[in-house]
Amino acid sequence: MIQYTDEQITIFQSALFQTTSTVIHVGGVVIIVDPTWLPGEIREIQAHVEAIRGEKECYLLFTHGDFDHILGYNAFPGATTIGSLEMRNHPKKEHKVNLIHEFDATYYIARNYEVEFPDIDIVIEQDAQRLAIGSTTLTFYKAPGHTFDGLFTVVDSLGLFLAGDYLSDFELPFIHDSAFAYERTLNKAATIMNDHDVKMLVPGHGRYTVNRSEMAGRITMASDYLTRLRTAIIDKDEPAIQRLEQEFAFLSPSTVESHKENVRMMRSELDAVQDASSGARA
């Protein structure tokens, strides 16, 4: 379904995990962000792109390489792809593609294009890297933590902040890379808010917002969870860790497992710091 649309931005929302796919029509180009999930949903995105594209150059921007964000890669042949250096060099490309095949086989889904891991044409290598396409400029920031290959993007002319799998209105952090990196990425998001005239925030899952107070509140919500998780692990406070698990929206075996992974990641990194400190003292 379409969550939001105007002359320059259309945000599609999948029925699955409230995943967003954003199409941007600005500066004489079309930019498609993370086209996904079900075939009918991707066809809706295709139809919209076809209606606005004409002879304009088309770009595919990937916020990271999780399988739910790369499903529609080959649905837009000829598009120039943009992603992080880490995504281009992803060590588990075959695994990500196999997850798509497994999903499609489980639900009897047939697609009319070949499923592949994206081949990245324009590689983002560093923070604050800028890219001029058409008559607009994109500014990119590395966003590790959820995954190691995450990417924030700001479309400066629109004040549009594309956050990938961060800053949802309902999701607490899912840490698959590093708890410490996730905390640093949240701090970076706050800096981006200060350095750019952000007018709209679009997360990878959930609702967009144009309210800057809400944007700041989403950073606070995620940071608060991580701070309380860190404290509970240091204090060995198992009841507090359990209470944090209950704060996840759409509580399910999947969110319970995600919280357990968060605990494992945070505990492992805290233990590593303690071991390094003990070794230094010795």
Radius of gyration equals 19 Å
Mean pLDDT, all residues: 95
Helix-strand pattern, N to C? EEEEHEHEHHEEEEEHEHHH
Roughly what fraction of the amino acids lie in strands?
15-25%
- Count of runs of 4 or more consecutive helical residues: 8
Overall 3D form: globular
Main beta-sheet strand count, sense and barrel state: 7 strands, mixed
Report the end-to-end length measured between terminal Cα atoms: 60 Å
* Spans of at least 5 consecutive residues with low confidence: none
**Percent of residues in helices:** 40-55%
Strand line-up across the major sheet: 1-2-3-4-5-6-7
Structural class: alpha/beta
Number of strands: 12
Question: What does this entry look like structurally?
Answer:
With 282 residues, the protein is an alpha/beta fold. The protein contains eight helices and twelve strands. The protein has helices spanning 39-53, 67-70, 85-88, 93-106, 179-195, 212-234, 238-245, 253-281; strands at 2-5, 9-13, 20-26, 29-33, 57-61, 80-84, 122-124, 129-133, 136-142, 151-155, 160-162, 200-202. The protein has a seven-stranded mixed beta sheet. A five-stranded mixed beta sheet has the order 8-9-10-11-12. α5 (179-195) packs antiparallel against α6, α6 (212-234) runs antiparallel to α7 and α6 packs across α8. The longest helix has 29 residues, at 253-281. The mean pLDDT is 95.
